[in-house]
Every structure is written in structure tokens, then in C-alpha cells.
Amino acid sequence: MNREVREFRRLERVCIEQAALSTMDLARSGFLKVADDCRIAAEAIEALHAPRGVVAVAVRALKLSLTATRPSSRH
User: Fold this and answer.
1) CA–CA separation, 11 vs 58, rounded Å?
2) In Å, how far from its chain's centre is CA 52?
3) pLDDT at 11 over 90
4) Helix, strand, coil proportions of the chain in percent (round to 5)?
5) How far apart (Å, rounded) are the C-alpha atoms in residues 2 and 32?
6) Residue range 11-29: mean pLDDT, rounded
7) Can you list the alpha helix ranges (DSSP code H) found in the chain?
8) How far is CA 12 from CA 3, 18, 28, 47, 48, in A?
């Protein structure tokens, strides 16, 4: 996970640097779009692996315990 995030962040920086060096508007906007996509990908990976809050864990545990103790309606 960390390796993927680092790689997307590195690509984001490279694209921003290339956009700054670009003399053509189309190339500059393309580099900035790719940099933005890399940032979004890195943030998505970080969000997937972010530690959950205590409340979220408690709510999930409560939901699991309620569904486990609920009698089945199927016979």
C-alpha cells in the first residue's frame, strides 16, 4: 500500500514539474490532469487503508452481533 501511494505521489510531482516546464498549453493541461488523477488515486488508496475510528468499529460490531442473533426467517 505505501509503495503504491508513494509511486502515485511521485508521478504527481513529476507531472507537476513537467507542466511547469511545458511551453504548450495543451501539454501543460494534460500534465496537470494526470497529476490530479495521480493525487486522487493516492488519496483513494490512503482512504481504503485509513484506520477506522472507534465509533465506526463499535457500530460495525453492533450490526454484526444483531444480525448474528436474529432468527432466520427461512425454514
Assistant:
1) 38
2) 14
3) yes
4) 80, 0, 20
5) 23
6) 97
7) 2-21, 25-48, 54-69
8) 14, 10, 13, 18, 19
Determine contact, residues 49/19, Cβ cutoff 8 Å: no
The candidate with the shortest Cα–Cα distance to 53, out of 45, 41, 61, is: 61
Cβ-contact 12, 39 below 8 angstroms:
yes
pLDDT at res. 31:
97
Mean pLDDT of 5-20: 97
pLDDT tens per residue across span 41-65: 999 988 887 766 666 666 667 677 7
Q: Which amino acid is at 52?
A: R
